[in-house]
Amino acid sequence: MIIPKIYQANQxxxxxxxxxxxxxYFHSEPDNRKPxxxxxxxxxxxGVLHMGHMLNNTLQDVxxxxxxxxxxxxxWVPGTDHAxxxxxxxxxxxxxxxxxxxxxxxxxxxxxxxxxxxxxxxGIILEQLKKLGASCDWDRTKFTMDEDMNESVIDxxxxxxxxxxxxxxxxxxxxxPAAQTAVSDEEVIHKEIxxxxxxxxxxxxxxxxxxxxATTRPETILGDTAICVNPNDSRFKHLKNKKAIxxxxxxxxxxxxxxxxxxxxxxxxxxxxxxxxxxxxxxxxKHNLETIDxxxxxGTLSEDAVLYVGKDRFxxxxxxxxxxxxxxxxxxxxxxxxxxxxSERTDAVIEPKLSMQWFCKMTELSKxxxxxxxxDDIKLHPPKFKNTYRHWMENVxxxxxxxxxxxxxxxxxxxxxxxxxxxxxNKELALELAKKENPKITISDLHQDEDVLDTWFSSWLWPxxxxxxxxxxxxxxxxxxxxxxxxxxxxxxxxxxxARMIISGYEYRNKPPFxxxxxxxxxxxxxxxxxxxxxxxxxxxIELMNKYGADGVRxxxxxxxxxxxxxxxxxxxxxxxxxxxxxxxxxFRLIKGWEIKDIDQEQASxxxxxxxxxxxxxxxxEIDISFSKYRISEALMLTYKLVWxxxxxxxxxxxxxxxxxxxxxxxxNKTILFLENILKLLHPFMPxxxxxxxxxIDERKSDIIITKWPEAKSxxxxxxxEFNNTMEVVSGIRNIRKEKNIAKxxxxxxxxxxxxxxxxxxxxIIKKLGNLSSINYxxxxxxxxxxxxxxxxxxxxxxxENFDKDAEIEKLNKDLNYTTGFLKIVENKLSNKKFVENxxxxxxxxxxNKLEDAKEKIxxxxxxxxxxx
RNA sequence: GGGCGAUUAACUCAGUUGGUUCAGAGUGCCUCCCUUACAAGGAGGAAGUCGGGGGUUCGAGUCCCUCAUUGCCCA
Length: 869
Known about the structure:
By secondary structure, this protein is α/β, with parallel strands linked by helices.
């Protein structure tokens, strides 16, 4: 068989993926095995794969593949999210390119366009996940706007309404003037920006006096309905019961007193615009102030503003400042840094705005969700997120669930007789309810609410609704798969999504939706910036996979991804992943190239096998521990080192036959066995490569994807330590070769003065890796030789020529100095009475041993130096 | 402004209850080697007063206080 020198990822990946699909390995049905379930964080239906998805889904695939191999009934449910704002914005963009505006369309027509868009672009991302190797159960693919999913959402809304947890009301909401919808608090991103603080003076009615306020938003003076000062502020006490005059429009407004006002800030006087600031709104509410809404839904000024009607608020800000200056009302303006809210989806500046919305009461609903995370029924990894979570849950606010959009589940509220409404699954049922109030109502009198529900109002049910557990709470699937095991997602949606799933999980199943939450970091670029389309700093994952292989990219992602830490992504990591693929490939190539013969086994091979067996089982144990702690990158690194250092650099070199010589059967078989185990350990990380080699080793029917995960066995730790000493001896020899420029091919003799305590049973290995002609035990030091020590044993390599006495003495002196210093430290420790009295016995004992060893070493070194000089 | 973290080698990070195995890993860097699986490789090597300052202790990277820098969440 001719095996190429380099692993060709692109030639094997598709083959194996379709093979796995054909065999139905990804598909899961309830049976009598234990389930292991993951639901995917559904990506936006029209989105494309970015690095965050890569990380996320690689992790999920690692977990699910390992669980599958461990014998669980592994089920990974894929799907997509309808992402109401994002998708609707995209559809509208597309339509406006064709010259179509939303106003020109009926709701029905719009939905038709939206579905067309969804059918065209939806699911691209799922196809991309296949390239990554994601072993999702594609038969279970869900979409948050599937018929059954919609029904679950509506059922839940009605249920919560009937429980009195849904209400409708005028509240200050975060208004996105670009998308023209309300958004939730969580969808507002506060950014610090450089702006200006304007000092504007208002005349006091019937007086020559003026009062100056400071504001960052001068355009809102048109909506002012009061000026507020602190009652404790002596500067303003005389203004009680006075009125001020709003500049430009000359509206007369009261001066009110409230302790809310910070006397230190600005001038100590605050303008109050109840319609456009949440704090002003609360003050307005308290003092019964008039509310003047000066903004239209698109962020332009409304009729109520009187001036600048129809102009955008930012333009007005500039113009009004100029105008105020002309009028002498603008005292000054100064640079000021403040925080402004931006829409997560459209990046528009959010306007606080009063509007009629639907809300979900959260206080009671969220109690179990807080409790069960605090008592670790649900564990967050890393645990530092527990604090953040608690803080949020303890201050949870009611959830604004309505959106002024069309793409989504329409709120099942039906209006009649003006503002009266009923909540029901459909118009017919609504009519029945309405008739109880007003028997004369007919179906044509009912009008359904125009708003849709927040996207998260469907995704918070995801772990339940994908198994139809809302509509059919007792069905076999939900009983079997729920609660799911692990949720793997980014920390940016901890509150949007994770917390709410926990809330709904307890409300509707009385059980957590998952047991463990693994929060990844955010993928950043090399210099720490968040990856984003606009910065153009995000590599195309598909291209990366073409370049480095899916396995290479998977490894690259995981190498730098400890839980909860942001990961600075660099393409060179994928390169490392690819190099690793190649390393494994070549190890396989070496083994496969050997001729197998019925010959005697070399001693080095016997010893090497004994050691590696122990090392392997020891590492498996460590890997399992890392997995159990959700330290995935650590598990990968352990595997990486097992393969590269232990298996390739050491084991294979130990058993490798001479050039073009055959290998004995026993060693070969063992080696194949080891390789197979290694491939199994690699499979979750590198599914394609491991499957490919698995089948190249041997023609066989079984696939690695469903083989049993190797089990850790008890090991001989002493033997592993001994081997480490052995490798130190080998290093010592290699060092001498390097320092003295001795070719590797030249055989050397080694003399040993053995220290009985550090016995070494691996002479065969030292001989082979050191390329020695002999190892001789002696009790006398060897003249004219280079030497080194491992523990308390001395090793000599005699060399008649090239012997540099002075250099040798210098080296020995260096060692002597170090050891003398070390001895001093130990002596100090032991002469400290308090240490000897208080420290554990074992520790003191060890220190005493160290003391003896150091003394012995010094004795030997001194002797050597004396004999040389 | 409030809350929660972080600060360990050039970079990215480990470091469990203070004490053998504590100053580590990977990458990068330096030296030598195209040697017969792999140059996408091999062998060897250098590199850190564990952010600063105090404290507790026989003993602190680890616990406490404080300052600095920095990130995230919330207002």
